Amino acid sequence: MYGWGWHEQGWGAGAWIVAVVGMIVFWSLVVFAIVMLVRHFGRPAGTGPGVAPPVDNALETLRERFARGEIDEEEYQRRLALLRQKP
């Protein structure tokens, strides 16, 4: 009858420490995997490696104003030349 208790056989009293550390490692790996999946699949379209850089906002605004007819071609060309001179 003696020897069937928790302390007499197997891991002994330290088994709960191994179990706790094992669970911490397990759940850490699960959280890490979820974070990596969200980072990989959750990024917005058009961001990430291999994507062209965004268009210059000033140039885009100039093009939109010209397309809407707010400025004429002469003004568009003059401002376009100024924008392209910027370093």
Task: Walk me through this protein's architecture.
The chain is built from three helices and no strands. The protein has 87 residues and is an all-alpha fold. It folds into two domains: 1-52; 54-87. The chain has helices spanning 15-41, 57-68, 73-85. Helix 2 (57-68) runs antiparallel to helix 3. It is rod-shaped.
Point out poorly predicted stretches: none
Number of strands: 0
Order of helices and strands: HHH
Task: Report the C-alpha radius of gyration, rounded.
Answer: 32 Å
**Mean pLDDT across all residues, rounded?**
80
Number of H- or I-type helical stretches: 3
Helicity range: 55-70%
Structure class: mainly alpha
Structural shape:
rod-shaped
The major beta sheet can be summarized as:
none
In short:
60% of the residues lie in helices and 0% in strands.
Topology of this protein?
Layout: H1 15-41, H2 57-68, H3 73-85
List keywords for this structure.
87 residues, rod-shaped, 3 helices
